[in-house]
Structure prediction request, 293 residues.
Amino acid sequence: LFPYTTLFRSIWAATAQNVLAETALQTGQLAESAQWAAKALATAREAGNAWNEGYALGTQAALAAAEGRLRQAQQLGEAALEVMRGIDQRWGVARTLLGLGALARLRRDPGGAMDCFQAALPILREIDSRPDIARCLAGIGRVALDQGQLTLARTHLAESLRLSQLTGSRIGVARGLESFAALCSREDPGSRDNPGSQDNPGSREERARLAILLSAAATALREAAGLPPLPPGRTQPYLDAARDLGEEALTELWEQGRSLTPDAAVTLALRSGPDLPWPGAGMPPTRATAAAG
Prediction:
């Protein structure tokens, strides 16, 4: 009985260490995450537990990518995928493909990224892993956005954002709002990809306003969830595009966006299509008005 008790304890220890590593990674504590991931990997290998081994390798791959060690991240991700496929762990395979897809996007390989995300999506839909479906759809949407396929991007980003909202994933919602901010700053209502309508003012100025509102709402949500802020370079393009509005108007828009409730910000994002009426006249409630109501 004793050897089995020790084995089970090791497996549970590796699982706990993996959870701690993942949590630290999500909150930007990379050094702490690296320590827990290394412990999880060692514990899992000692116990002969392939699932926790593959999970720890996937976390180490994500850490390497976050630190710019892209070649090492690729090697670790492929090792994680091999382990998960070896035990036919479908969720683990799909999760690892998501990481490899994100890595391919970082390496400016849109074809490779799309292949990974599209390979993961049917697995995730079959097992109904909704948070991961949201991540996968967001990945497809971001790759489409990178390639200028804005209608395709909006379709996938919208489904991803709805799923993140339904599953209560604050980081998913924050990232979704950031993606919509990028999308709004890129959309041209007069283009073939985004035909627009006569009821929508549809000017570049209005698209810039939407991008600012959504980016500010995402920033506030990150802060409320204790998540690390985006690098300034990610929000600077939206701010630069809106400079013509004037500093006073820009500051007012930023504060208005920060005061939106998460549900209101999601509604604004989903109604932000260039072929939909501009939602400014019927703005969703801010946190203050929601509390007062």
